Automatic annotation (TrEMBL):
Homotetramer, a dimer of dimers. One homotetramer interacts with 1 SecA dimer. This is Protein-export protein SecB. It comes from the Bacteria. GO terms for biological process: protein folding; protein tetramerization; protein transport. It is found in: Cytoplasm. The keyword Repeat does not apply. Pfam families: SecB. The lineage of its organism: Bacteria, Pseudomonadati, Pseudomonadota, Gammaproteobacteria, Pseudomonadales. SUPFAM superfamilies: SecB-like (SSF54611). PANTHER family: PROTEIN-EXPORT PROTEIN SECB (PTHR36918:SF1), PTHR36918.
Length: 165
């Protein structure tokens, strides 16, 4: 019976665990370089979104994941506003390794952070006296898969270059 309890204890240790420990804004910037003249323009904005993620291990089983977004909104050729945010979170992840851990930190955690970043961007845009900006959902799994494919292609390209030299 003691062996069964010990085996059950080992299974619990090896079982995947995930917990969100903290979400916070690491950096936030808002610029409206053409105010107040931009308010006189007809509001037909062109919005571009640049997105990046990064992560770092901060302790055993604890990772900081940072979702960086830059939103540039133009009216004609004039920049109406520029918003940059680094939305971050501390996540506890254990019992997950290798590709599964990489996917969790590169796709799942940013997916958790995105609604917070979107709300912060919308709030700061409103405070700048611009119409609400509700960013469309982002498929972080697809972005992660593309990044992984790019890395593999670069690695295979470098390997072939080494063979030809």
């Amino acid at each position: 019976m003691a062996e069964n309890q010990q085996a059950a204890g080992n299974e619990e240790k090896n079982q995947a665990q995930f917990a969100l420990q903290r979400i916070y804004v690491k950096d936030l910037s808002f610029e409206s370089p053409n105010s107040p003249l931009v308010f006189q323009e007809q509001w037909k904005p062109q919005v571009s979104l640049d997105l990046n993620t990064s992560h770092s291990k901060i302790a055993d089983n604890q990772y900081e994941v940072v979702l960086s977004l830059t939103v540039t909104t133009k009216v004609g050729e004039k920049v109406a506003y520029l918003v940059e945010i680094q939305q971050a979170g501390v996540f506890m992840v254990s019992g997950v390794e290798g590709a599964q851990l990489s996917h969790m930190l590169g796709a799942y955690c940013p997916q958790v952070l995105f609604p917070y970043a979107r709300e912060a961007i919308d709030g700061i845009v409103n405070k700048g006296s611009f119409p609400a900006l509700m960013l469309a959902p982002v498929n972080f799994d697809a972005i992660y898969a593309q990044a992984l494919k790019r890395k593999q292609e670069q690695a295979s390209g470098e390997t072939q270059e080494e063979k030809t030299h």
